[in-house]
Design a protein that fits this description.
56% helix; 150 residues; elongated; mainly alpha; 6 helices; 434 Repressor (Amino-terminal Domain)
Length: 150
């Protein structure tokens, strides 16, 4: 996932270099498939970032609770905010937002996550969709062996 304009530029440069290498036959035949897959992944990342920037919050999809951290980063991008601008809204140092995002909010408190979502204007609109039909582990018919995903 691309998190900043600087990272977008780096990935665009990497893609261009890989495409030049492929076009100039500078890639060994046995490596061509791997390089092609890397190009496809870079193109997908670049397109996802551009879509967030163009469509804004309408492009934001959070399907599972595990998707919330990435959704907060995507929400920031969709709002056109830098990490520093989000930090200003939150009243924290820019390094704090950078740290939270670098670890996908793994050590951020729930209160901090909620504060970020509120600052982005998405706290009241996060709706988890997907596996609603599956019973919870503690619900009747649920399973203590519920598979963990992450």
């Amino acid at each position: 996932m691309i998190r900043s304009q600087r990272e977008l530029k780096r990935k665009q440069q990497c893609l261009a270099a890989l495409e030049r290498a492929i076009a100039g036959f500078e890639v060994a035949r046995e490596d061509a498939e791997a390089v092609g897959l890397r190009c496809d992944a870079l193109k997908a990342d670049i397109e996802a970032y551009r879509r967030l920037r163009v469509e804004g919050l309408a492009a934001l999809r959070i399907a599972r609770l595990a998707d919330v951290p990435a959704g907060l980063i995507q929400g920031r991008i969709a709002c056109g905010l830098s990490q520093a601008a989000l930090a200003t809204r939150l009243g924290v140092a820019p390094q704090q937002v950078q740290h939270w995002e670098s670890e996908l909010y793994a050590h951020a408190s729930f209160a901090a996550v909620l504060e970020v979502a509120t600052a982005l204007g998405i706290a009241g609109s996060i709706q988890l969709v997907g596996e609603a039909e599956r019973p919870a582990p503690c619900a009747p018919g649920g399973s203590a062996d519920w598979p963990r995903s992450g």
